[in-house]
Amino acid sequence: MNNPVISNPRTEPRIRVRLPVRLQFGWKGSEEVRATTIDISERGISVHCQAPLRLGMEVKAILESAPDEVKVYHVVWFREAESSEQGFNAGLELEP
Predict the structure, then answer these.
(1) How many CA atoms lie within 13 A of 67 on its CB side?
(2) In this predicted model, what pLDDT tens digit does every residue of 18-71 receive, in sequence order?
């Protein structure tokens, strides 16, 4: 499918952690999918989900453990997981 595309090389440490997260996108956040974080850094997160995302897409991420702290990200890379049945992995970067 898509090869990874990274807008900026990683320069900060990433913490590997699996947390449930909801991703909202589309007109006024009309679409929502459940995902799981893979890792988190100061500027972004990597997630695993069942829905394909698009490069550059604006996504609101809502951690299940902190539902009042909504953050807006852009998809900076996207690829199929090891098999399409396993879903997709995506890199999300905070808006500047």
Answers:
(1) 1
(2) 999 999 998 777 889 999 999 999 999 999 999 889 999 999 999 999 999 999
Structure token digits, residue 14:
């990433």
Q: Tell me how far apart the alpha carbons of residues 86 and 94 are, in angstroms, rounded to a whole number.
A: 26
pTM equals 0.81
- For the chain, the 3-state helix, strand and coil shares in percent, each to the nearest 5, are 5, 50, 45
- 83: phi then psi, degrees, rounded to nearest 5: -140, 155
Q: Report d(CA 92, CA 77) in Å as an integer.
A: 7
